[in-house]
Fold this protein.
Amino acid sequence: MRGIGLLRRLTGIPAPVPKRSKRSFDHALAQRFEWKNNRQVIEGTFAQLYSDVEANRAAGGIWHSASDQFFCGDENLFASFVERVRSRKCLEIGSGPYGFLLPATWIKDRTIIEPLANKYRQAQLDLIGKTFLTDDVRVYTTGAEVLIDDLVGNVDGAIICRNALDHCEDALAIIANMSKYAANGCYLLLWTDIWHLQGIDDDGHHNITRSIEVMDALLEGLGFEILKHGALIRDQTEFIEYGRLARRK
C-alpha cells in the first residue's frame, strides 16, 4: 500500500474518490425518502383518518386508549398517563404526518420535532382543507439530534417517539436529548426498529443495535425507570424491535 501511494505521488495520478457506502447516512436522501412515502400515506388515508378522529372527539373520546401498544390493556396505567399529560407539556419526536400527539387535541400543550412538518401540513390542507398541524401545536423543523435549549428540563408530561429513531443518523444522541428534555415524572413512550434483519436497501433507514439489553441499559442509565414492555407489532423474522413505556425518575 505504501508503494502504491508513493507511485501516485511520483506520477501525479490522483487517488480514487471513495464511493458513498450504502451504510452511510445522508440526511437529504433520507428526507426525500420520508416525504415520498408519507405523501402517499397522506393521499391514501388522511381524509378518512381526519373524519374518524373528529367523530371520536364528537363522541367524547380521546382517540387513544389502554389498548395502545405501550399500555397493553393496563387501564390503571393508562388512566394515570392521561391524568398526567392532559395539562402538561408533551413532546413528540419524529411525528410524521399524524403521530401520537397531533390527533390528541385534549392534550393542551403539544410540541413536535419533525423536519417535514411544513410539507405535511400543506399536503393535508391541499387534500381536504384541514390539517392536524394546527396553530396551537408548536413545531420545530430541525433534526432531532440538535438539542433545543427551550425544551431542556421543560417537558413534564410525556415524550413520544415512535418509528423514528431508525430513520435518523444518531439515535443515541436523540435518546440523550430526550433525557435532557424530560422533567421528573415525565413519561417516555418509545418504539423503534433497532435492527433490520434482512438488510437495508433504501435511503431512509439506519440500524442502531441488535441488543435489546443495551437499549434498556441506556434508558436506565439516562434516568428513566422502565414501567412496561410494549407490544411487538413487527414480523420478527425481519426486524428486531424495541418498545418501552418508561418514566423519568
